[in-house]
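User: What would this chain look like folded?
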Amino acid sequence: MRGMGPLTVVHVLTHENATRGGAIQALLLAQAQKAAGHAVEVVCNAAPGLPLDPTFERWTDGGLSLRPCVMFRGKEILKFRRFLAEVGPDVVHVHRDTALVFTYLATLLAAPPAFISQRGTTHPFRTRTAAFVHHSPRVHRIIAVAQAVKDTLAGFGVDPRRVEVVYGSFDVDRFDPATARRDRVRRELGLTDEQRLVLQVGELHPKKAPVTFVETAAKLAARRPEVVCALAGKGKLWDTCRARIAESGSGGRILMLGFRSDIADVFAAADVVVNSSTGHEGLTGAVREALALAKPLAATWVDGNPEAVRHEETGLLVPPRDPDAMVAAVCRLLDHPDWARTLGLAGRELIVRHMHPAVRVRRTEEVYRQVLAERSAGAGSAPPDHACASA
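Assistant: Here's the prediction, encoded as structure tokens.
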């Protein structure tokens, strides 16, 4: 092991832009590690023939070194190998399956001292190759973003001793109740002081269940005249959601906000935040961010959500795909605002205690150094891949 001084870490991202939750989480970690004194490089997937997407500019402007790489092109693999040889990292930390398989293949002849994979979903492995690599001892540790992810990996046959739980984090400067601008967004949306905003944030993707949220919103609109609902995010279900809102006859009370760069202010404008996810997410980023802002929250009882949303302690949990149960939970929070506020404050305290960037950096470094110590002592010597558990 390289002592207890700063480490050189290379992060490898599948993402071609910096708007997806997984990319943001990887970049938040890299940024926090750099601030903690480590030497950090980030390799990002790029569209063939193009430089990095402009959405990465926020991170390069903040001092991160980002390099484009078109994964699985022969020339790019060779360039990536040369880059690793020049940098000589202590740790290569990969994010999502494409980056994992690419890095696995690119380092067949020269594995890094610590090869770490990040796993943020309970979804089954998408390919046999991804399954094989997750089982390979050449991947020294898998960092799961929630206990639910670790349990799922164990169910897939991955040795749980190779999996460590390190929760994702949040941007402490943006998601701060003291600085988020609630009134600005409420004025923009034309809300009066008497109206109550119920909000869901997330990509308009089936696993986020935006259509279920629209059904919930229509039921709330029929029952509670003071309630306005809003859906923030973009995605392939945009037209479907818009059509369902029109069919509900509640169009003026159900708003589609699209992608928002000021999402912390949008969260702050809400009186209740809803998460309708159906699964395969690990621990939903919108849940972490809503609780970081101390918002009253009603979420589905899936995957890692209960690890942050402790029922009637930091929020309310309901079954997935059950608009009636979600309506009842939202009404409880609206009808008991002092209790709802207490839940939100308890949620923020839990998130800060377990998911603050400083906590994440410390826990991740512990994983790195444990692997480096094992490798230095020879305990990390791995059997050939063909001796691994079957994927």
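Residues 55 and 61 are 11 Å apart (CA to CA). If you want, I can go into more detail on any region.
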